[in-house]
Amino acid sequence: MAGTSEHARPVSVTGKVMAILNAFALGDVRLTLSEICRRAGLPLATGHRLVGELAGGGFLERLPDGTYRIGTRLWRIGSQAPAVTGLRELALPHMEDLYEATHDNVQLAVLRDLRVLVVERLRGTRSLPVLTQVGATLPPHATGVGKVLLAHAPPDVLEAVLADGLPRHSARTITDPAELRRCLARVRRTGYAVTRDEMTLGAASVGVPVRDAAGSVVAALSLVARTRGADPRRLVPPLTTAARALSRDVAAHWPGPSGVLSGDRKTGA
Length: 269
Hints:
Layout: H1 13-22, H2 33-40, H3 44-56, E1 60-62, E2 68-70, H4 72-78, H5 82-102, E3 105-112, E4 115-122, E5 137-138, H6 144-151, H7 155-164, H8 177-190, E6 193-196, E7 203-211, E8 217-226, H9 236-253
Antiparallel strand pairs: 1-2, 3-4, 3-8, 4-5, 6-7, 7-8
Helix pairs in contact: 1-2, 2-3, 5-9, 6-8
């Protein structure tokens, strides 16, 4: 899912623009022009022209060091997506309470296109510094929220993730499909997922499910803390309390359109 360069080179102007924007889908905050073109499968001259136009329109932003990031205009448009707007509004009060109780990073995520999409994030001066940004995507097999979402996803979604491969992000990342299956079974059994140094060295995360009125898992809530000197499982009680409260609000006020958040390549949120 890294970019169009892994598949057919985009032909139409619309396809080229979509490929450029999709270059940022992996969650990288900044990309050079050459990185954008490589991921989009575009010649440098073509990419330079289109990236310049996108930056001029506010869809991308060119930074003083010459790199590019998503522009505020595109962010404003994307943030209005109904599939996540209502969920974010319901979740924020619970996330704020959770942060006040723990002072750790709080994340809300959904499954989209076989990746974990960060819908909202809260952190403070005492939180572990992390690179995760709202709108960024993360690998599901190496994150607490991702393991929760995968554990409750339809079987075909898990098989698609395994077919795409399990890239190693650190020495402790689970890359063996059989081991990941055992891990996901444990998540379903215990009701929470724990990761230690799997995505980033020094960071541990705990994730729990958020459910709708039918009991289906529509999102995951997590806390990210320092691995050293801490037992991530101590975060399970406050995290579970917040997720249950959010689930009650979701069940009462956020029905969600059919197919949203299922992880489906075409209709996932």
